[in-house]
Structure formats: C-alpha cells, structure tokens
Specification:
By secondary structure, the protein is α/β, with parallel strands linked by helices. It contains 22 helices and 15 strands. The protein has three domains: 254 residues, 2-enoyl-CoA Hydratase, Chain A, domain 1, CATH 3.90.226; 210 residues, 2-enoyl-CoA Hydratase, Chain A, domain 1 (Alpha-Beta Complex), CATH 3.90.226.10; 38 residues. The longest helix is centred in the last third of the chain and has 19 residues.
C-alpha cells in the first residue's frame, strides 16, 4: 500500500482540516470558556457514529476580497453552517427510519450570521429534505443577516433568498425540530420560530432583531441579554422545552424525533392499580394530572411541550407498549382545570402537529368548562377557544377520550373533539361526572329564586347541598353511561389496555385530505 499522498489529495486534506475543531483551536477555546459546545461537538452527539454525510464543508464567507483566504477558511469555516444527512436513533429504528437532515449553525464562524453561501447551503439541504421526505433537526444559534459579504456584487438587499420560504413550506410535510443555545436573532430567530417543536437552553436569548438592528431603528440601545431571555420566551409559548445545556437539549431532540420515527420494541409500564386511588375522594379537590400520565404511559416516555404556557392543558407525547401518541390533558391545579384562551390555542396547535404526522391522540378530560368572564374575553377567548373545535374537526387520526372526573359544558366538548360522539372511543372513570355546566353553578342558576327565598343561611346551605347531591346522582358516570352519553365506564386500572385496544381498532385515518395544506392553513 502506498501511503504517499498526491499533492491534490494532501491539499484537500489541509483545506478540510481548517473546518475542524482540532485546527480551529482558538475558536474552540473561546467557545468552551463560555461553557458551550462547538457546532461539531453537538453534531457528533446528535448523529449516529460515522453516519453523517456533509454538504458544502469547504464553503467560506463571500469575503475573499476583505481577508486572507487561508485566514477566512478558519475564521468563516463552512460559512457558519454545517449541513448534511445522517442517522439518528439508528439502534432503535433501523437505518432507513433513522435518516434525517441535520443543520448546525456554527457561532464560532462569524457568529453564524447568514451570508450568501450560508443561505445557498441552507437552501440546498432543505430542498434535499423536501425531496427525500426526511425530518430536520436544526441548531439555530446565530446573529441573523450578514452585511459584509462584499464578494457578491449582484446582491442589493438579499431579500430574494428562499431559505425562509423553503423552511416554512416544509410545515406539515416533515417533522422539524429547532434547538437553540446562546444568541438567536433576526433570521436565525425566524427559523427557530417556524419549527414544529422548539427546544432552548436556559442560556438562550431569542429575538426577531438583535441589538444592532434595534439601535439602527432608533429604538434604543440594548445588550444582547436584554432581548428575548428564556423566561420571557417560555411564558410567551415561543419555546416548547427548556433544557439546562446543549447536551440535554440534544438528548431531548433525539427523543422527540423518535416519536415521529415509530414504535420501539423495549418498554415497561408502572403498576396500573395506582390509578384506582389517584383521584381524591373529595370531588372538589385538585390533583396533579401528570401523575396520571406517568402511570398510564410507558416508563420514561412522557415529554411535555410548553409546560409554562397555557398551563390549563398539558400537551405532550407518550408511548403505550412502545407506540407513540399525542396527549392532551386538563390540569385541574390551574384554574381548577378550566380551559382558558391560551390553553385552548396551545392544544389546537398541538393537535395539528399530531394529525400532520399521523400520531393518534389521547384526551384526558377533567374540566368545569371554558374559562369565562370579562378578563377571559379580553384575551380573545371566542377566537382562541374556538380554534380547539376547528383543529379537532379536521384531524383524521384516531382519537380516544377518557373522562377522569368532570366533563362539563363546551370546555368538555372541546376537549373530546367537539362532541362526545366524535372520539373513536370515549370512556369515563367511576369518578366521572358530566353536565351542561358545573353542578354548583347549575344549582345556583336553576334554583336561584328558591334558594333566595330561604332566609336562614344554614338551611339554605343544606338545601343547596342536597340539590347538588341530586344533580351529581343524575350526572355521575354510571348514570350518564346508561343514557349512552358516552361509550363505557371502566375500572381505572384498565385504562391503558382499553386505550391500546381502541387505537388498534380505530381506522388509521378517518377521511382522505391534504394534511400538509390543512396543517398550514390552521396554523
């Protein structure tokens, strides 16, 4: 074997090395000093070993007439963005199902700003993702548009780049997960916001304009850390999941992608008998619905999205016997489980995601209804709450609903597809109770005159309690089931088994429609 390299090969190897961490020591040291990983370290952690095929590795910024070319190859390596195809979770799903497009913005190269060749690389790999129908994981850190690409004399404003259109047009066609750490401004933030699922570390600042653009617009001088800090973007619902660091963000991204890659063979579940006593005996007392979810789901399979936004409804992914599902559940520890405008809109968006990628939906219902009152209406509740009906009416995937306790009014209907007749199977636990509105409110309204006529407060309360008890007897799960208000009352410990049976027996899709267009139209 001849170990001597021809000049062409050795020259290529030298060029290639300038894009790698082992050569870019100064940039790597600066990155590590900030407590962050390099782009190629994130790539190595995300992609399966030896699976990544890179596109455009030798690109540099279009600034050859400003800097020494060799210096530029190191300073602007790969023009600030690593793109390619690899496998993720190959050991779980096999080679074909694990293929994915990977995009990692490299902040050590001109702050991952978006220049001429940066956009060309991004456009190229997104078209590949579209053609091959491959999911995308994108690390979005970066400072937005770059004004210094002086090599390109034919560009005036650069507003004819297609990156943003192409990325957005993939909505509903392939799963897109965005991961951010550090500064993410302007164009980079637009890419982050367009993703189906967004993950950000606690050291993330995300904004549609960075400090320079804000100052240039005459809106004041701000530090980068003043703009879109993580606590603001979590409350706004911009970020689905917050992680401590890039390592955790990468692990979560891999796990999330797995829900779209298919079922896993190995699974276990908790003792289901715990569900029998999870609802308090006092029907007016709250309980953590996440405890219900943790018992129902395969061990370590529940991932929640937007936990701090729209807190009245929990949304997330679980597995049952290894098979992925989307889940929505009322959180009775927030507003007693009432569905407010923010929660409804969050759940509606999540349903679109599940339907676009054919994930069955499980609804765990315990709500007194929609949140009402002047303050609620000030939040555009009519429009935002109604979006839950619209999204449910358009889904084609199997839907199973479980009434854990309260199922009252329009809010309960919205949680179960718009009607108790909509789900493929709808059941209640023995603790279930249903009605046109909450029992106490119904009694107060329905017997307002009679109660007002009772002068003695103790007697009035006794009569009120008796009326509520009678209303409960009429609306409790077993009585409602005898009137065929829903399909069955079940032993709570059988819930998991029944959900699996119901999903298995349900038609895979209820009707034929263009899901991609539906997903975009009902954004």
């Amino acid at each position: 074997m001849n170990d001597k390299m021809r000049p062409e090969l050795s020259g290529f190897k030298e060029l290639q090395s300038r894009t790698l961490d082992k050569t870019r020591t100064e940039a790597v040291a600066k990155r590590h000093a900030a407590g962050y990983r390099t782009a190629r370290e994130n790539l190595a952690d995300l992609a399966d070993a030896d699976s990544f095929m890179e596109y455009g590795q030798l690109a540099v910024a279009a600034q050859r007439n400003r800097y020494d070319y060799k210096e530029l190859q190191i300073r602007a390596a790969a023009d600030g963005i690593i793109t390619g195809i690899g496998t993720i979770n190959r050991d779980l799903f096999g080679k074909e199902k694990s293929r994915a497009v990977i995009i990692v913005n490299d902040y050590t190269a001109l702050a991952a700003t978006q220049g001429y060749f940066h956009h060309k690389k991004l456009d190229r790999i997104l078209k590949v993702a579209e053609e091959l129908k491959l999911p995308v994981i994108m690390y979005t850190e970066g400072g937005g548009g770059r004004p210094g690409d002086t090599d390109v004399s034919t560009v005036i404003a650069g507003l004819n780049y297609t990156s943003f259109y192409t990325w957005a047009s993939l909505s509903g066609l392939i799963p897109r997960i965005a991961v951010n750490n550090g500064y993410c401004f302007a164009g980079n933030a637009a890419l982050f916001g367009c993703a189906d699922i967004t993950i950000a570390t606690r050291t993330s600042w995300i904004g549609m304009a960075g400090p320079a653009m804000i100052e240039g617009g005459g809106l004041g001088v701000f530090k980068p850390t003043d703009i879109g800090p993580i606590d603001v973007q979590v409350k706004n619902g911009v970020v689905d999941i917050v992680t401590e660091n890039e390592a955790e963000a990468t692990a979560i991204a891999k796990k999330l992608l797995g829900y779209f890659q298919g079922a896993v063979e190995q699974w276990s579940c908790p003792d289901q008998s715990a569900l029998r006593d999870i609802i308090p005996e006092n029907r007016r007392r709250g309980y953590p619905v996440r405890d219900v979810i943790d018992v129902l789901a395969d061990v370590d399979s529940f991932i929640e999205l937007r936990k701090s936004y729209g807190q009245g409804i929990v949304t997330g992914f679980i597995r049952l016997e290894g098979k992925p599902l989307g889940l929505i559940a009322n959180n009775c520890m927030h507003l007693s489980g009432a569905v407010d405008a923010e929660a409804a809109e969050k759940a509606a968006r999540f349903l679109q995601l599940c339907d676009a990628f054919e994930l069955p939906v499980l609804s765990l219902t315990d709500t007194p209804g929609f949140m009402v009152g002047p303050n609620s209406e000030a939040e555009a509740s009519v429009r935002r709450m109604s979006s839950l009906f619209v999204s449910f009416a358009s889904i084609t995937v199997p839907l199973v609903a479980v009434i854990l306790r309260r199922g009252y009014g329009l809010g309960a209907m919205a949680m179960t597809g718009g009607s108790f007749l909509t789900p493929d199977y709808i059941v209640a636990w023995p603790t279930g109770e249903i009605g046109g509105m909450g029992l106490e409110g119904a009694v107060k309204l329905g017997f307002k005159k009679e109660l007002a006529a009772i002068e003695d407060e103790v007697e009035r309360k006794t009569v009120f309690d008796d009326l509520v008890a009678k209303a409960y007897e009429m609306g409790k799960a077993t009585e409602a089931a005898s009137h065929l208000e829903f399909d069955a009352v079940i032993d709570p410990m059988d819930t998991r088994e029944i959900i699996i049976k119901a999903i298995t027996s349900a038609p895979k899709t209820k009707q034929t429609k263009n899901k991609r267009r539906n997903f975009i139209d009902t954004w």
